[in-house]
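Bug #2210: token dump truncated for Rieske (2Fe-2S) protein?
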Amino acid sequence: MAHHYLCKGSDLAEGCARGFDPRGEGADTIFVVRKDGRLHAYRDACPHYGDTPMAWRKDAYLDGAATRIVCSAHGAQFAIDTGICTLGPCLGQALTPVPLAIAAPDDIYAVMEET
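Reproduced locally. Full output below:
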């Protein structure tokens, strides 16, 4: 497993989400959400249809109240803490979680298989 640097923890505010391209593929492939002080990371792909990106624009992963992750292509809504679809065409399916590692002093890394 490889650790890919994402950002400083202080760069991700409470109630916000941010996309990352940890392998330099040219598009965000994972995103991280900070909710209630905890970080949650997922692949940037809706389970409803293949690898459909979730955001309709850069870092736009959450609903207006920042209480759910929303797929812009299908309108599916996902719980931030579990990634499980709670409303929409992929009800009961889940986003693919991405493990994170936090290193001193405040660095966030995605822990991913090497390709």
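Output looks complete on our side. The mean pLDDT is 94. Marking as cannot-reproduce; reopen if the truncation happens again.
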